[in-house]
Automatic annotation (TrEMBL), chain A:
Keywords: 2Fe-2S, 3Fe-4S, 4Fe-4S, Iron, Iron-sulfur, Metal-binding, Oxidoreductase, Tricarboxylic acid cycle. It is an enzyme of class 1 (oxidoreductase). Pathway: Carbohydrate metabolism; tricarboxylic acid cycle; fumarate from succinate (bacterial route): step 1/1. It comes from Bradyrhizobium ontarionense. This is Succinate dehydrogenase iron-sulfur subunit.
Automatic annotation (TrEMBL), chain B:
This is Fumarate reductase subunit C. Coiled coil: none annotated. It comes from Bradyrhizobium ontarionense. The chain crosses the membrane at residues 29-48, 68-90, 111-133. The keyword Membrane applies. Pfam families: Fumarate_red_C. The keyword Membrane applies. It comes from the Bacteria.
Automatic annotation (TrEMBL), chain C:
It is a peripheral membrane protein. GO terms for molecular function: succinate dehydrogenase (quinone) activity. It is an enzyme of class 1 (oxidoreductase). Coiled coil: none annotated. It catalyses: a menaquinone + succinate = a menaquinol + fumarate; a quinone + succinate = fumarate + a quinol. Its EC number is 1.3.5.1. PROSITE patterns: FRD_SDH_FAD_BINDING (PS00504). The keyword Membrane applies. Its cofactor is FAD. This is Fumarate reductase flavoprotein subunit. Part of an enzyme complex containing four subunits: a flavoprotein (FrdA), an iron-sulfur protein (FrdB), and two hydrophobic anchor proteins (FrdC and FrdD).
Amino acid sequence: MPDTTAKTTIELRILRYCPSTDTEPAFGSFQVPYSDDMSVLQALQEIKATLDGSLAFRWSCRMAVCGSCGMMINGEPKLACNTFLRDLAPGPVTVEPLQNFPIERDLVVTVGDFVKKIESIYPYVMPKVPKTVEEGTYLQTPSQMEAYASFADCINCMLCYAACPQYGANPDFIGPGAMALLQRYSSDSRDGGQQARLDQIRGEDGVWSCTAVGICSEVCPKQVDPANAVNQNKSNSALDFFLSGLRKESVT
Amino acid sequence: MSERRPYLRPQPRTWWAHPPYRAYTIRELCGVALAVYGAILLAGLVCLARGPAAFESYRAFLASPLSLALHLLLLAAALWHMVTWFRILPKTMPKLVWHGKLVPQALMTQAATLLAVGCSVALLALVVVVGAWS
Amino acid sequence: MDFFNADILVLGAGGAGLRAAIAAAQSAPDMTVALVSKVYPMRSHTVAAEGGSAGVVRADDSLDNHFNDTVEGGDWLCEQDVVDYFVGHCTREMIQLEHWGCPWSRQPDGHVNVRKFGGMKVERTWFAADRSGFHILHTLFQTSTKFPQIRRFDEYFCVDLIVDDGRVQGAVVLSPATGEFTAIRARAVVMATGGAGRVFRQNTNGGIVTGDGMALAFRHGVPLRDMEFVQYHPTCLPGTGILITEGCRGEGALLVNKDNYRYLQDYGLGPVTPEPRNKFMELGPRDRLSQAFWQEERKGRTVTTPQGEAVLLDLRHLGAAKLKERLPLICELAKSFAGVDPVTAAIPVRPAVHYTMGGILVDIDTASPLAGLYAAGECSSVGIHGANRLGSNSLAELTVFGRVAGEQAAAFAKAAPAADARSADQARAIEAKALALLQQNGDGERHAALRTEMAVSMERGCGIYRLGPEMQQTCETIAQLKQRYQHVALEDRSRVWNTDWIGAIELGYQLDVAEAMAHAALARKESRGAHQRLDGFDKRDDANYLSHSLAHYQEGAAPRITAQPVKITRSPPGQRAYGALGEQLEAARKDATHA
């Protein structure tokens, strides 16, 4: 029986695309030295340093907190830095840019659209009770923190967007990550901006593209549970719809 | 002039047929079973309105092996729909915090499942008791 | 080439850059702030800070305590007037972050909680579990989106400053996405580009921490101060260098060697108590703990792992519940990167390069000697860290001096004239130079190979303990690498997302910064804080070296090193001691002041 642990190299099949020379993406293959503690990111770095300096990918912290190195590894959205070759041996390992995003070059995808979505939902505290620094901090009990804590852990890695078929079908859908951030602020006891945010997420491009597939929460590397954020806001948005009808009637 | 030319890979048309989305697709399709069962009940009502002969043929259909098989299939689909929906139930609810700690989602699913089973058993018991009376 | 006119240009969008941009936008709402970052702001390396941020808040604490801890921790190489300003403004910045939404960990009654940290006499480290930097960065980034006058340039890489008429007038930036250049003209520039830890091999830093801003200011004649002081963080994963926060020890973690012996007691940090006390044992400062590891390794008392020698950080006695509440990230990191669950096993750790104490010379107002150029955060040397930074002082520094830099830059910009017309020619020359590197046909050497050689050499010459001949060798190696750098060849000629090209430019920055570090280290013939020599200069020498080092850039030659006096206002240099001796000395000092 062949001993896979004795394997000294592993094959990475990487989807390459360079707009200056290629009309469409195509796979390239690389053999890299294999070791048990090596991450896919380290394998990519090895390729870039010794085999092909033109390979393009984003990375920085190497410890799953900066959110740069999201990519499709064997078809699943993953952070390259905390996906290990030992779990993928004997290979080959397929590495592609994040699904559902336009490819800029090799493993680099367009991020700007996602960042615009984040910016659109008022991602900051709109104080319920304004306070000066001299007046000290707000009080917030551990229970009140729990209401938004998981949503505040989002690292903006966009894996949830790569997993979301509704985002794939409608790129204008605000998507799981931005909704997690929305819920992070809207469920913060210091915040009073709930209505302003609800006004941003009506309709098809708001929460209503979501059909509760739920894969976004499964692929999340930080247990943020964006599916919960989206679906809580479906209820909130529906309630807001009826209440706003009532408000209008009471005005007239 | 920049050489930038972003390339968008379209989402495969059959994404719903492949893992990890297949489970979701099956869950949603099982919802159709409930509609089919509703249609069967509706057909019974229509037959009832048309008179005794029509209703009798409806009853005969219900007793046929084909109908029994269909109902078993529908029951299985409905149960699966329930199980999977309860699994994502916690995703659709506000977070529950108990004494400063989040209530685990698995616990919420278990409680909901237990409640559903309890209700079903109670309903069944009611049917049996009422049936025995009449 | 595009041109963009701003009033204030902030280079770097980590904690310091974002805080500066917000402060500038608040103090001059009618001005345009261009905020340039080579990554999306939330990827900036502030994100990786774990333990927390200092700010006096407890009734049993005082600003004097924070001042004394910082100055003693820095081995009296701190600018004491700056430290006074710093400690006086930390807490209000922490409150400001709280108002902006930072999820600081709380006590049951809803008040903010603080934890113990190394070298700090009283608990004063505000923390958001063990993701403090992450939460600070995201809070600042998200808050910054409130200000329409902040015009962000996300993923724009700075290739050079525009300097004319004796003042900085902007910068030329490259967009990796398009390969096109933009000249951003501004009346004031804030440098907030972070540290340079990546010039070493084993480090806790992200790939982006390449000293860009330090090198750019340096090349334009701004001295780099105290570059020899590079902090080794004592508890990092062997091999990868991933950071295992000091917050672990703040929560009560113990450090043991292969014999399960708390070895720190052998290095002047005892006596041993079951839970470490402030400024004793595991809660000693980082330089001392890293040095103790080095000694243990020499004595053969470390644990051998496949990734090298290590000691053990034991958290088991804290229990699963507390670990999950206070140190969730550490649990996750230990499991995935070291295969160890801290609930059931000790984590193998060793020192790795963590922080650049030195940086761009600036005064208490964050102003550099180059008119219009301000600097804040790790890239700067405002003077609070001295020869060794205390954990949790750097996140506080980002906010305190980030705000100062933003406000000062805004004030400067109000008074300064607009950029002059010549800046366009200079911008085009900068673009041409960067494009020449892209087309360079060298002898085929990859810059990655040079980078590795640099990092290995820095580790050998400028590590935890240093020797004259080894430092000399490192200086020579860096000089040779700079020669070879002139001939590197790129494999990638595309303009779009050419990370080969950007990596090569970054290596140029790294080599300049590394050279400043090595030469400053060679010139300091004493041992102080993080700079420890074993070649006859193993004592602190206040008579000759109670002074900052300044490295001055010289085109085509090694940097010139000069000395700058240290500002001492109220704490004369004393013996720096921790553990029992530290306590005795403090008692004696107290008696002396009461007498």
